[in-house]
Amino acid sequence: MAPVVDVHTHFVPRGWPRLSEDPEAPWLRVESEREATIMAGSREFRRIQANCWDAHLRRREMAEDGVDLQVVSPTPVFFSYDRPPAEAARIAKIFNDLALEICEPSGGRLLPFCQVPLQDPDLACAELDRCLAAGHAGVEIGNHVGDHDLDDAGIVAFLRHCASAGAPVFVHPWDMPDSPRLGRWMSRWLTGMPAETHLSLLAMILGGVFDQVPESLRICFAHGGGSFAFWLGRLENAWYERHDVIGGSAKPPSSYVGRFSVDSVVFDPSALRLLVDVLGVENVLLGSDYPYPLGERPAGQVVRKAQFLTEEERGLLLGGNAARFLALPA
């Protein structure tokens, strides 16, 4: 029986200082031993608790949820893609080294993913190599760098390097557009975040990225791949009917199903069934977005309760697929 693996969780180092001269740079305001607030300059971004940095607390809550392993990725607000490359590389190094310290007491139950200065592919590749040698299990990247999406030449070069290094890549939406309409009801997270992930999958397909990177690239998209699975038919129709406008891929969009994975954090059995039906049962991995309030607790409850899954399929979603994504030893 494969271990139950949650591929989508986050961490924040306790006491993270302001490391940039940017007045909007993120830092951590510590309120107590158990509580803190992520600050964006002088603005409160998100209140967090000790399960963001305390490995022993995480393990207790993992046991409550029946999770054996967690992939522990950076919280995207700390990516620093808008900073000068050298500064972003310095921040990534500190953040990544602290990730190892946070995960070390877990006895191998917490698998750290690093962050890289994605705005500079050479620095990004160098930091990835350093982190893999130090014990990181893979890398989390944001779904864009400013106006550069995942089909940007520099990002494609980095993805090729990930494939050659055997590093799994977890893509997380971030830096969603803001406007008065999106400022209500957490709409940037409720509509903007799924749209960002969908847009980046379009960039991978219509931008020809899957035609340029090796099939050995292991890449997973957060939040169920956004709205991609629901609208794959519309994309396919557009590829045939308006090939003059969107024909950037060598093959129809549906041909690339199987080249990427998505996580399961969609909260509803019907949505999970859509992912399994459209993307394939072998391409959906357990994810929870732990420990944040919009995540799933207990982790994996929708997968465990989904009556349409066979026990073999449930095992794939709970851990078998993640074992392949992470190249875990048998």
What distance separates the N and C termini? 10 Å
Query: Structural class, from secondary structure content?
Result: alpha/beta
Known CATH architecture = Alpha-Beta Barrel
Average the pLDDT over all residues and give the rounded result. Answer: 92
Task: Specify the CATH class.
Answer: Alpha Beta
Helix run count: 11
Biggest sheet: strand arrangement: 1-5-6-7-8-9-10-11
CATH topology: TIM Barrel
Low-confidence stretches: none
> Helix and strand string, N-terminal first?
EEEEHEHEHEHEHHEHHEHEHH
Overall morphology: globular
- How many strands, what sense, and barrel or not for the largest sheet? 8 strands, parallel
Oligomerization category of the chains in this entry: single chain
Radius of gyration: 19 Å
Total number of distinct structural domains: 1
What report would you give on this structure?
This protein has a single domain (5-10, 63-326), classed as TIM Barrel. It has eleven helices and eleven strands. It has helices spanning 55-65, 85-103, 121-134, 153-165, 187-206, 209-212, 228-241, 243-246, 269-279, 301-305, 311-326; strands spanning 5-11, 26-30, 35-40, 43-49, 69-74, 110-114, 138-142, 169-172, 219-221, 261-263, 284-285. Helix 2 packs parallel to helix 3 and helix 3 (121-134) runs parallel beside helix 4. The model has no long low-confidence stretch (mean pLDDT 92).
